[in-house]
TrEMBL record:
InterPro entries: ACT-like_dom_sf, ACT_dom, Preph_deHydtase, Preph_deHydtase_CS. It is an enzyme of class 4 (lyase). The keyword NADP does not apply. This is Prephenate dehydratase. One of its GO terms (molecular function) is prephenate dehydratase activity. Keywords: Amino-acid biosynthesis, Aromatic amino acid biosynthesis, Lyase, Phenylalanine biosynthesis. Residues 198-275 form the ACT domain. The gene is pheA. The keyword Amino-acid biosynthesis applies. Residues 4-187 form the Prephenate dehydratase domain. Pathway: Amino-acid biosynthesis; L-phenylalanine biosynthesis; phenylpyruvate from prephenate: step 1/1. GO terms for biological process: L-phenylalanine biosynthetic process.
Length: 279
């Protein structure tokens, strides 16, 4: 059996590097083979899995510097049926790629918003006048370089070599220990593991409404490793909360906490329990 794995494309993105790492992991741990399928956006990657076009999808979820990838969280909430199979953490190192002769010729820099944000300080110091334009992915940004010789793109060294484009500067990320966490998702139940992710909306917008939902974890001695709020997009000031726990849904304490949590929330979505692989 061969798995099909969707990722943000075109070829050479960091998501593809994460998907490749997962392909290796599947071969090494389970002897399973798989092939990769690029999609034009993170949302389309997730919907392809939800529609059953592919078995699995690999999407970025959080960066050590920039924080959450909102597109991933918002789409997961919207889709409802996807379960996390595995988390992967990859080091991320960005390059400035351009056909310009030197960085001073560059007037505009294209990249994925996360990559632009992770190089903000470098851009301010070295190219303070350039316009920054967001693209769906780092490799989509490379498509502008052929037509615009005064354009630069931020992508990986691997992407530059794949498309045979020159690197003008590397590394240009503001922090050397730049890492991104990716989730592998599918329609299958999650396999279990020491990390659990969930999201909920609250019953009403009133003082202290988050106290009880969060207290259930404290009472069961469960450590929360991340909390992130996202707008519901219905009313200004109305939020969803995304939470990561250092806990497995198979543990009795987690089962109790989640059952109680359901009574304090309007909608509760449990994305599953999984382990983390560092590559
Ligand atoms: O655009 C890409 O290459 C992606 O995979 C998204 C991304 C961008 C920057 C850091 C990590 C992931």
């Amino acid at each position: 059996m061969q798995f099909s794995i969707a990722h943000l494309g075109p070829a050479g993105t960091y998501a593809e590097a994460a998907a490749t790492a997962y392909v290796r992991y599947l071969v090494e741990t389970k002897g399973l083979k798989s092939s990769l399928y690029p999609y034009p956006s993170i949302a389309q990657t997730l919907w392809a899995v939800a529609r059953g076009e592919v078995d699995l999808g690999v999407v970025p979820v959080e960066n050590s510097i920039e924080g959450s990838v909102s597109m991933t969280l918002d789409t997961l909430w919207q889709i409802d049926t996807l379960q996390i199979q595995q988390a992967l953490v990859l080091p991320i190192s960005h390059a400035l790629i351009s056909l310009a002769k030197n960085p001073q010729e560059i007037e505009v820099v294209y990249s994925h918003p996360q990559a632009l944000a992770q190089c903000q300080e470098w851009l301010n110091q070295n190219l303070p006048q350039v316009r920054q334009i967001a693209t769906n992915s780092t490799t989509e940004a490379l498509q502008h370089l052929d037509q615009e010789t005064t354009a630069g793109a931020i992508a990986s060294e691997r992407a530059a070599s794949l498309y045979q484009l020159p690197i003008l500067a590397h590394p240009i990320n503001d922090y050397p220990d730049n890492c991104t966490r990716f989730w592998v998702v599918s329609l299958q139940p999650s396999p279990g593991g020491n990390h659990t992710s969930l999201a909920f909306s609250v019953l009403e917008n009133k003082p202290g409404i988050l106290v009880k939902p969060l207290q259930v974890f404290a009472e069961q001695g469960i450590n929360m490793s991340r909390i992130e709020s996202r707008p519901t997009k219905r009313l200004l000031g109305d939020y969803l909360f995304f939470i990561d726990l250092e806990a497995n849904t198979c543990d009795q304490s987690v089962k109790l906490a989640l059952a109680e949590l359901a009574t304090y929330t309007k909608t509760l979505k449990i994305f599953g329990s999984y382990s983390i692989v560092n590559r």
